[in-house]
Batch of 3 targets.
Target 1
Amino acid sequence: MELSLFVKGILIGLAVSVPLGPMGLLAVQRTLNKGRTSGFMSGLGIATADTIFALIAAIGLTFIINFLNEQKLYFQILGGLVILMVGFRIFIANPVKQLRANRIKRIRPVEEFISILLLALSNPLTILMFVAVFAGFKLSGDLNHFGSTFYVVTGIFLGASLSWFFISTIITRFRKRFRLRTIFWFNKLSGSVIFIFGLAAIFSLLLSHG
């Protein structure tokens, strides 16, 4: 039983860490611009935030979930603005200057971890996503016990961490094949996509409340 819950947790962790969202793109961009350590620590920050949100959803803190539902509009606006800012900063970033700065200034893994952890935690609506995921995996009944919750949440953290380890490793393996011009345009593309994520979040709110 415990092994089954642990495996389900790993599968959930692997699934939610696919770098399709703004934070995932940011971690990929950091890997290309700064290297494997920066990318993995950024991914670990995302994994930690997801684990915290998963734990809250698993414990079923009703008052927190109700509060998020009631204040969803404000959290979506805040999240949209944060994503807009991140996308804009990536878009205007100069990879040449970043690479030179990385050679001069040693990358501090803890800073990379904390910075993206705080960004990821700025979107607590992720808790609601985990509520839906747990229902989809038919885990709602199993999460009534501390032991079951521990196995699932631990599995989520392990799955997400492993996913970012492999993602950062694969990107780093091919990183040397990328020319500066390629990285420059990837910055423009990823920055634009992240910026569009933010715009979409804000415009969807305006349309729904228009």
Target 2
Amino acid sequence: MTNSAFSGTLINTMKLLLVVNPSASSVTARTRIVIQKALSADHRLEVAATSRRGHATRLAQSAANDNFDLVVVLGGDGTLNEVANGLAGTETALAALPGGSTNVFARTIGLPDDPVEATGSLLDALEAGSVRRIGLGVMNDRYFLFHAGIGFDAAVVEQVERQGGFLKRFAGHPLFVAATINTWLRHYNHKEPSFHISSSSDDADIGMTETNGMFAVCLNTDPYTYLGSREISFSPETNLHTPLAVVTFQSLSPSRLLPVLSSALGLGNGHINDSPIIDYQVNVSEGSVSGYDPVPWQVDGDYLGKEKEFTFRHEAEALNLILPLGTRDIY
């Protein structure tokens, strides 16, 4: 706990900004009104709606500069990522409310799927002063809360975003499954390595590692994502207090990927590290990637284009985060 505004007697003087993405999958006018009323009952609340890409980052930066105690995000993981980038390194805290189609980070920290119910959990956490300083991942100077991906998964996200907001809002997980198949068949070279990756571990027994890959994910916490109600877990030992985990796929052959996916879904007793196509590193402090051609990348499910060179690192104690009471041990 780092901010006295979160302690007992000062709770009713908190200054909150609610950032709403009106285009997010689970955001409705009714939900927004109910949440605004709940948050403003005991706090000084201002509300801002995002209108374009990057807008949420600027709203968060302004809130930090104006000494807001907390920025609450009602939106998907992309909006949450933008706000985190605006607040990193400041004392203004971040709180998540699930408003997207998957809500990976909100679910990871133990929030209910329903945004109104999650607001009740948030208010309980504020009353108890449940705020922690967490670490973030950084790739090419972009912070990420739960993961950054280079290669195949970013190409899948690109195809999903090409479908526009309407399909993403209403098709949800089936759209991602269809995009994954379509990307593998038509939009990604799955026969040759796409990049060379090196990483440095805080574990002295591991040190520096290097390998080629077709797809890599840097994890700031676990799970990687969700398929319906089931976690896709790549690195259960990675959390918001540890350095990064880096998982590199050296093949995209379906016959080799299916056992990895089965393990990640918790079907059976295996771990993805048992697969010969996986290079698995934990406690990673920093690293770099060199693409043989420009490679797509994404952070927290938000597609950011293509680059040939990447650097990544872990930044400890970068952000104040409101955590729901009784959440699992992720910090």
Target 3
Amino acid sequence: MAQTWRQEVQESQDIQGLPSDVAISDVAIDDAAIGVATGQTAVQSATHAISRHRTSIGIVSLTLAVVALAVVEGLILRSNTADHVAEMRLILAAGARWAAFVPAARAIAVCFSAMVAVPVIAILLGVILAVTRSVGQMLRGLAMAALPMAVIGLIKTIVDRPRPSTARGVLMPDPSFPSGHTACSVVVVSLALFMLQVIDARIKGSRRLAGLSAGDSHTPAIAADSAIPQSQVVWRGVRAVLTVVLIIVPFVVAFSRVVYGVHYPTDVGTSLVLTPVLTWCVYRLCEPMR
């Protein structure tokens, strides 16, 4: 094999009129450069894999830590009589002060029940799939919705905190801590924000492709920004407004659950802190490989 290769090189040298030692040296140098480049790529890939592995371990550790803290908090609250009395006073005061908000609180409870939330989540996942054309991204969104709610349900079962002793609270069949409706609102909002993110990425990608097809790939970034179409400026404004509105929604839902008399303030407060952390952890863990 080596002799055949050398004969081929010798024939190409004769045709090109090159000295044999020069041509063979060039081939050896090219092979060495390819080997070095391959080695560097392998090292970079290994470094990236190790970094990603460490990041995943850190995210899983954070998830387990916050879940454990939530369980401990719930068990303490369940057995704390003084806290129960203090929170009942807050619930009754909020119900009296915001009695006019009770019909809206009832409507919010329906909107973020499983009967309504599941179809909404399905629609959001469908939009993500249509925009990204990636089953992986759609499954990433599904995990962002399903896993946090499963953890919330598990904590409810472990803590088993009774509902507030109000007219509506005693009718609720499931435990009180943490608030499932508040957690559901956070999940829906997180998925909606993810949908806005992929839509924005698709729009930016389309703009770059349009720029390349027009031959302005060497246009400075500043000039490109100054030539943003009016439609994209409108989209940026719409996205900013939607983001603000979506972030406010879970707080409104949490407030409505207290006014409605079916959750303690600590129930909704825990969901407002725990669920975004869980959703973010799933989002990062399911991040596609680069």
